[in-house]
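Lecture notes, continued. The same structure-token format from the folding unit now serves as the input rather than the output. Read the line below as a description of shape only.
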């Protein structure tokens, strides 16, 4: 079951098709999500990913917890710019099953040229904070994936991305065109 918590985003990625569809207040209403909750036990997985940055939704953690309480495997895709150590610790504690990081460059210049508005080192620090939260809480979850959108500007860095993902504790790299 895929639920789009928000269409808002804090970046301006060069390949993103969504900006023309975004409104200033494009969050799913909490009341709308709560109407979905009784149906969550009918599914195995809750994917809280959409056309925006999931971590911008003020009730994302509550959505994760609702999915876990319903017995779902829960995860979402993120640009990780808002994945602070506190947010990571809360997500690990809530039992988040998987998280997919959108990282389209193994170097700061390539990454920042594609994910405009993000800072490569800050995102790397956030990914390490998630790994630390898992270590502190003695958890194997969430399983971590790196989503790499291949473009002419970055495809030559794919081998470096695989190495970087390994160093960061990533479980999988998904390269898409």
């Amino acid at each position: 079951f895929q639920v789009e918590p928000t269409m808002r985003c804090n970046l301006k990625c060069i390949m993103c098709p969504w900006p023309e569809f975004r409104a200033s207040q494009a969050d799913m209403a909490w009341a709308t999500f709560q109407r979905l909750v009784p149906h969550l036990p009918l599914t195995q997985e809750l994917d809280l990913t959409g056309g925006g940055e999931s971590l911008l939704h003020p009730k994302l953690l509550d959505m994760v917890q609702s999915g876990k309480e319903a017995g779902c495997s829960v995860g979402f895709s993120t640009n990780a710019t808002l994945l602070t150590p506190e947010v990571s610790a809360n997500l690990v504690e809530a039992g988040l099953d998987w998280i997919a990081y959108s990282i389209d460059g193994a170097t700061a210049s390539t990454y920042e040229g594609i994910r405009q508005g993000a800072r490569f080192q800050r995102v790397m620090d956030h990914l390490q904070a998630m790994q630390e939260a898992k270590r502190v809480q003695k958890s194997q979850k969430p399983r971590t994936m790196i989503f790499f959108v291949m473009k002419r500007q970055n495809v030559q860095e794919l081998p470096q991305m695989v190495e970087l993902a390994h160093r960061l504790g990533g479980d999988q790299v998904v390269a898409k065109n």
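Point for the exam: The two ends are 24 Å apart (CA to CA).
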